[in-house]
Amino acid sequence: MGLVVQKYGGSSVADAEGIKRVAKRVIEAKKNGHQVVVVVSAMGDTTDELIDLAGEVSPVTSGREFDMLLTAGERISMALLAMAIKSLGHEAQSFTGSQAGVITDSVHNKARIIDVTPGRIQTALDEGNIAIVAGFQGVSQDKKDITTLGRGGSDTTAVALAAALNAEVCEIYTDVDGVFTADPRVVKKARKIDWISFEDMLELASSGSKVLLHRCVEYARRYNIPIHVRSSFSGLRGTWVSNQPQGDQPMEQALISGVAHDTSEAKITVVGVPDKPGEAAKIFRAIADAELNIDMVVQNVSAASTGLTDISFTLPKTDGRRAIEALERAKAGIGFDSLRYDDQIAKISLVGAGMKTNPGVTATFFEALSGAGVNIELISTSEIRISVVTRKDDVNEAVRAVHTAFGLDSESDEAVVYGGTGR
Ligand code: ASP
Ligand code: MG
């Protein structure tokens, strides 16, 4: 039997009961003959509460001290879980990210893992321990400062450790039974996906599906680590994310994997841009120099009478203010009339490798939206994805309509949300 990495999210370890339940499950895996490494998130909404607390003492909620603060959340859960396991008669040791050898760059609050040197973990395992690791954190290579990997980063910790330790599988335990064809909080009839390719999962993750982070899936694909997403509450078999289906997993990729939505973006429209070469380049250079990432871009047809056009793009709401400031600073050099900022938008995406070879997917998608009376503001596509921007108020209706139109609705109500406040 090989080594498994199990990761438990905040809602699975939200209280003492939850921690004891997780301890039993971890011991079960050990009893089945596995070496077990467990990655934990902070209990419940601890991370959000720490962020609120930081806001009460300082306007600066970022940087080195902020990372020091947030990593405390995961340290609480790792120690409590180790204690709970020991009290059930099994050996366990907990480790911070730094002790576990998670080495990152020095970008505080969104560090990237650049190396994993899990010597201490390996030793702990060899001595018969269950190793518990605090997720979402590491230590910077150059300054030896504590860093965090960005919100939801514990999944990435788990996959990175699984790769470094040559694990058989990385199990991600969450508060739903797996990856669903849509957010089960929005679509009651969402279906659990038994198997999904890394490619489709990456598109779902970058389109707003929150069950797995894009960076985590990217890492898993690079090192070819199969991920099993499942619930710590039900113990049911969940969703396998991997290169190739194995064993009794479905042999065929579904035509459409699912519908994702995202309400975390805003839209900026640059109004009255001269329609001549070099203008778009200047706009996006200003955005790039401010180190901001954009998502969708659309340029309108210019009105012949004025020779002016509008350019709209979307980006995370959290970057909205900085983008507006960067464009205002560059206004003289670019030469536009005004800026419009709109954060009442939503993005709805349909994802599936099958759309490459199936005509009519785009038509059905737009017909579903029109049937639901949803107006489309922007459109973008990739080979295996179609995304539209709509009004935020329309998002739930739009997701349900598209889900139904592609025959994704399940007969039974299998989409159970076991925990979490959705915060
Ligand atoms: N506790 C961190 C967060 O809430 C990391 C994680 O849960 O993965 O973002
Ligand atoms: Mg969390």
Automatic annotation (TrEMBL):
Residues 268-344, 350-423 form the ACT domain. Keywords: Amino-acid biosynthesis, ATP-binding, Diaminopimelate biosynthesis, Kinase, Lysine biosynthesis, Nucleotide-binding, Transferase. Its EC number is 2.7.2.4. Catalyzes the phosphorylation of the beta-carboxyl group of aspartic acid with ATP to yield 4-phospho-L-aspartate, which is involved in the branched biosynthetic pathway leading to the biosynthesis of amino acids lysine, threonine, isoleucine and methionine. One of its GO terms (molecular function) is aspartate kinase activity. Transmembrane segments: none annotated. It holds the Pfam family ACT_9. GO terms for biological process: diaminopimelate biosynthetic process; homoserine biosynthetic process; lysine biosynthetic process via diaminopimelate; threonine biosynthetic process. The keyword Transferase applies. This is Aspartokinase. Substrate binds at T47, E74. Pathway: Amino-acid biosynthesis; L-lysine biosynthesis via DAP pathway; (S)-tetrahydrodipicolinate from L-aspartate: step 1/4; Amino-acid biosynthesis; L-methionine biosynthesis via de novo pathway; L-homoserine from L-aspartate: step 1/3; Amino-acid biosynthesis; L-threonine biosynthesis; L-threonine from L-aspartate: step 1/5. It catalyses: L-aspartate + ATP = 4-phospho-L-aspartate + ADP. The keyword Transferase applies. ATP binds at K7, Y8, G9, G10, T174, D175, R185, K210, V211. GO terms for cellular component: cytosol. Gene3D superfamilies: 3.30.70.260, Acetylglutamate kinase-like. Belongs to the aspartokinase family. InterPro entries: AceGlu_kinase-like_sf (IPR036393), ACT-like_dom_sf (IPR045865), ACT_Aspartokinase (IPR054352), ACT_dom (IPR002912), AKii-LysC-BS (IPR041740), Asp/Glu/Uridylate_kinase (IPR001048), Asp_kin_monofn (IPR005260), Asp_kinase (IPR001341).
